[in-house]
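quick one
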Amino acid sequence: MKRNADDKTKLSHLGRSPHDYHGAVNPPVYHTSTVLRKTAAEFMDSRRHRFDKGHLFYGRMGTPTHFALEEAVAEIEGGYGALLVPSGLAAIAVAILSQAQAGDHILVADTVYTPNRSFCDGFLARMGVETTYYDPMLGADIAELFRDNTKLVFVESPGSVTFEVQDIPAIAGAARQAGIAVVMDNSWATPLHFKSIAQGVDISIHAATKFIVGHSDAMLGIVIAADEALYRRIRETDGALGMAVGPDDAFLGLRGLRSLAVRVQRHYENGLALASWLAEHPLVERVMYPPLPGDPGHDLWKRDFTGGCGLFGVVLREAPGKAGFGALMDELDYFGIGASWGGYESLIMPTKPEASRTATEWNAPGRTFRIHCGLEDAQDLIGDLEAGLDRLATHLKKTGG
Ligand SMILES: *Cc1c(COP(=O)(O)O)cnc(C)c1O
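structure w/ pyridoxal-5'-phosphate:
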């Protein structure tokens, strides 16, 4: 593999070496706990290297199936190494725990994935780590929130549910000067469209459950470290917690990764088509989608990202209650009602940004919902939404809402 090969080429070729496996195109799925050594000396040597990248010591710490996906994602994201964990939330937890201990303070963007907040407010608080949520619009001014014991800044861009774009290079610059680590949830952009490490991030995580697995059939997280020291801290933290990913799930992640570029491109095209259409709809106040010109995050997004996906939020002009959301969503043909995203199938769900922010206020005239555009035909999806919005309009007229 040439170092300067395009990501699309890398997706097809990284993480496999067929001729080590009798010519089989894909690495085999290693089902093993025990790994035998021929001599006591070999065993002791292997144990000493148990946290080395790509070293097989014991099933819990990963097998060649895991290493293949880790190597491929680390290379595309631009990091030293990566580690698979059982979910995106586990990736968040391991990344934070690798940096923070009792008595420390961390800064977390007010717009992060809600279970991330629950981890900070519950588990971390009990362990003696204090969290301050900050306005995601802060750039270099985040330095004003740094304390002597601040160890980490957590960024997520665009933010969950409301899709604010953060100025990551500015935040990373300020953090670097103060010796504070920057951890990023980069799930929206995938390793393809935001090069987190090059933009100054120390540790990047992905909910691989979403676009990397890509078929809504496995839970998986991945943590990418900028350098070897961070990588070892992450592996030791993960090792202490005893987290292990089944080899079949690692294989599904690797299988998903091969088609990531074409899938995400289609998600993105559908996202642009649906978001532009929705933005013009009379019931819609605005669409929260940085790739749309006019979105508050559009300029930063254009500066720092090389593409997008099909996940965005919608603010309605009105505030339909449960029955209103039912009118909009219950009869849709192609949108499943459910959490998560990144699969081939379109999804829709009501959201509630006001319920999960404390540093900033959420002011919108109406209620919000989120759409994940799947791989279906854009016109079919638009037709489906149009019918749903017609049902909502009829409902609002009837109820005077
Ligand atoms: C879903 C999600 C996660 C968590 O991933 P799981 O694999 O479901 O644990 C983390 N961050 C973001 C932004 C997500 O949307």
